[in-house]
Task: inverse folding
């Protein structure tokens, strides 16, 4: 992977838009020419623990589809870099991808940079798939070229709260929220609080934990004063593992439940037995779910590289699926332009992802592909899925 940078401050981006708005963007790709897709990756930044396998999955799918002849006579060229989850760098990389590389669409990453870039993305007419599932990206007036390929963080939190409401025994369920002070961390919080109030679940505490926290004892002790039955975590593997290890040392009885970036094999590897009984939101399949139809293509690709499914984790599958959905949009496009690919994505109707993720549908009026998730629990050091695809409504 090359090098990028990431979370954007809106003010920084606004200056970038003002300074670069007149630059020429990509023109229509002619028959037989490659379709260039830009990639914003976090390999070395605050979310690099999950960003690295995700980027590998995106690159792998592009290589796989190209080995099959590409899409409608076009190979896909993925041009990406590591932006390290830093603010000024995402804008610089975006400008390069747009103006120098003439990409026709973008595979992005973080919430802060995605939200801050969305006005410029709309001006440049570049379809944008982010690894952020921020609820704000559903707003087509503000984000007409952004698409969500999995349930939004807010929908994930609502579904977890609904599951708690339906399964809690003994009075009103008490829930704490643990998140980092970034656009990503805070994304679902207000929606979660509003929905909890609506359905009669009590949010009793909130704690801020840094993405790279090495000690969360003080936050957990403060949380424990409110005696929550459950704590919903919106973090990546690193901070989540710290929370779970400290909770085990403190002998807390709270049931911890993580949204999608807190969930996966990497968490178990870092947290060890402290992850036992942790519940995670599952938006994409685990590689060890080998019987899934969609896993056969992944296995075929890995075998060609001398690798096995056991070499990969869930975030690799997540990146693979994201690139696969983009390829489907390109396949549906009448013209290989940003507008053409956007229209092609909007033709995707109940796309069967072979069990690797919930089927997705996009229309001109709805760029949120799904609101469905599964839930899994760590048992004997391994996530075991215990629900079908579910949603809060």
Result:
């Amino acid at each position: 992977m090359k090098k990028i940078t990431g979370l954007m401050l809106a003010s920084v981006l606004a200056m970038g838009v003002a300074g670069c708005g007149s630059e020429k963007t990509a023109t229509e790709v002619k028959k037989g020419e490659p379709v260039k897709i830009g990639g914003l990756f976090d390999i070395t930044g605050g979310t690099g623990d999950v960003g690295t396998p995700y980027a590998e999955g995106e690159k792998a799918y592009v290589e796989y589809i190209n080995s099959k002849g590409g899409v409608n006579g076009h190979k896909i060229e993925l041009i990406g870099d590591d932006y390290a989850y830093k603010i000024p760098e995402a804008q610089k990389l975006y400008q390069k991808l747009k103006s120098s590389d003439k990409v026709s669409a973008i595979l992005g990453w973080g919430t802060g940079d995605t939200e801050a870039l969305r006005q410029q993305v709309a001006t440049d007419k570049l379809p944008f798939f982010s690894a952020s599932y921020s609820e704000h990206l559903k707003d087509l007036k503000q984000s007409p070229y952004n698409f969500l390929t999995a349930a939004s963080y807010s929908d994930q939190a609502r579904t977890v709260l609904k599951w708690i409401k339906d399964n809690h025994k003994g009075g009103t369920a008490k829930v704490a929220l643990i998140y980092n002070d970034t656009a990503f961390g805070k994304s679902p919080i207000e929606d979660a609080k509003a929905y909890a109030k609506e359905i009669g679940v009590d949010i009793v505490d909130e704690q801020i934990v840094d993405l790279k926290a090495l000690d969360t004892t003080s936050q957990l002790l403060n949380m424990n004063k409110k005696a929550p039955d459950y704590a919903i975590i919106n973090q990546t593997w690193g901070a989540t593992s710290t929370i779970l290890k400290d909770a085990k040392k403190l002998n807390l009885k709270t049931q911890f439940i993580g949204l999608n970036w807190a969930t996966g094999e990497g968490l178990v590897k870092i947290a060890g037995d402290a992850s036992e009984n942790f519940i995670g939101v599952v938006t994409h399949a685990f590689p060890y779910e080998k019987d899934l139809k969609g896993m056969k293509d992944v296995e075929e690709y890995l075998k060609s590289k001398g690798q096995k499914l056991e070499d990969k984790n869930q975030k690799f599958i997540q990146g693979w699926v994201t690139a696969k959905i983009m390829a489907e949009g390109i396949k549906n496009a009448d013209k290989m332009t940003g507008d053409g690919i956007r229209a092609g994505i909007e033709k995707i109707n109940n796309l069967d992802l072979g069990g690797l993720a919930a089927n997705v549908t996009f229309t001109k009026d709805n760029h949120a592909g799904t609101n469905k998730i599964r839930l899994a629990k760590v048992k004997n050091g391994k996530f075991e899925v215990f629900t079908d695809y579910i949603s809060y409504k």
Notes: The first helix runs from residue 10 to 20. Residues 153-282+374-385 form a domain with the Rossmann fold fold (CATH 3.40.50.2300). Confidence is low (pLDDT under 50) at residues 1-25.
